[in-house]
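Sequence design from tokenized structure. All designs in this work follow the same two-part layout: the structure record, then the generated sequence. An example of the structure record is given first.
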């Protein structure tokens, strides 16, 4: 029998804390070399400004085996009233290969993308971080802020979006959900100056703020861009920062934020300080003083989905929720 977990069921069982723990464990095994994760094939559907990714992973230490099919259609919200990111996850039994569960993948994606920033923030942001600047007021920006609030004593967030009404809705919903003060700002500068942590979670293909504005001690989580020709962060930001990536291989293939400054000759590959797995396993230290500007760049890895899907499946069995079907 196959367990079907829809979005509402997943929302009722999966917390950000559990997701951060699962994703941190996945990065530990990634850092220990216990993961099998081929690079994800991507198909661009140029006619409709779309992209679809096929993301398989096996995490040896956790016995997590899954594949996610995820699409990114940035015109969906305005044209079709659908989310930019849509997905489905299949979770398999590592012992037999049998299908265990089918899950709605949009919620899993948002939670695991927030969670990996939560893990990075735990190791890289100043412990006394209180103010967060948020670029983008969409789906990912919500779970990004949830995750940062889970690991640091955040009191205030400042949100900037090119659509002010989106930022206003975000501020209203997220201040209720997280119990913190959220201000809408009209200028990108105001989501950088005086912020301890900056989140970029936009669909922009060009930098959303200027690296000159960054202050000592800031931590940045850059999660929005994931193609070689697009970037949310400019070359000055990358140059000024101690850069940690989710995966060297994936970021050097997919992250315009890193690839463009390399092609410009502003940095070399050696400028990347570490993979998150190296920090989680203690092979390299995270933040070492209060003045460093730290940056976590994630393009998103299949191990995040596999670990989160396994956690959701275990919770669903324990709480006896979801529907079963036979195929
Ligand atoms: N790294 C990862 O693992 C990962 C995972 C999921 C999604 N993503 C990417 O994150 C991005 C955001 O996804 P989403 O689901 O939140 O999309 P979304 O459409 O829900 O939200 C994106 C928001 O960004 C805003 N925006 C665009 N340009 C901006 C700019 N210059 N300044 C400020 N705001 C701007 C849009 O108005 C919109 O509100 C997408 O590019 C998506 O592919 C990355």
């Amino acid at each position: 029998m196959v367990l079907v977990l829809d979005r509402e069921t997943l929302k009722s069982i999966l917390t950000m804390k559990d997701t951060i723990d699962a994703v941190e464990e996945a990065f530990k095994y990634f850092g220990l070399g216990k993961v099998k994760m081929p690079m994800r094939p991507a198909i661009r559907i140029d006619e409709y400004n779309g992209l679809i990714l096929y993301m398989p992973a096996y995490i040896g230490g956790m016995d997590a085996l899954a594949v996610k099919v995820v699409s990114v259609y940035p015109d969906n919200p305005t044209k079709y009233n659908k989310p930019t990111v849509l997905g489905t996850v299949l979770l398999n039994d590592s012992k037999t290969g049998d299908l265990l569960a089918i899950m709605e993948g949009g919620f899993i994606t948002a939670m695991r993308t927030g969670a990996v920033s939560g893990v990075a923030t735990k190791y890289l942001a100043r412990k006394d971080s209180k103010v967060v600047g948020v670029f983008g007021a969409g789906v990912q920006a919500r779970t990004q802020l949830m995750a940062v609030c889970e690991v640091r004593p955040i009191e205030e967030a400042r949100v900037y979006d090119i659509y002010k009404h989106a930022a206003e809705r975000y501020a209203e919903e997220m201040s209720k959900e997280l119990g913190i003060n959220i201000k809408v700002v009209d200028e990108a500068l105001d989501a950088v100056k005086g912020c301890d942590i900056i989140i970029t979670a936009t669909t922009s293909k060009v930098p959303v703020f200027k690296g000159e504005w960054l202050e000592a001690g800031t931590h940045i989580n850059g999660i929005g861009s994931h193609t070689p020709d697009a970037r949310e962060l400019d070359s000055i930001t990358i140059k000024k920062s101690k850069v940690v990536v989710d995966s060297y291989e994936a970021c050097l293939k997919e992250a315009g934020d890193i690839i463009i400054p390399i092609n410009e000759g502003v940095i070399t590959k050696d400028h990347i300080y570490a993979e998150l797995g190296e920090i989680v396993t203690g092979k390299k230290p995270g933040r070492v003083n209060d003045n460093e500007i730290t940056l976590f760049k994630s393009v998103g890895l299949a191990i995040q989905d596999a670990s989160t899907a396994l956690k959701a499946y275990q919770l669903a069995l324990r709480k006896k929720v979801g529907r079963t079907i036979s195929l």
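The longest strand covers residues 50-59. We note this feature because it recurs in several other targets discussed in the main text.
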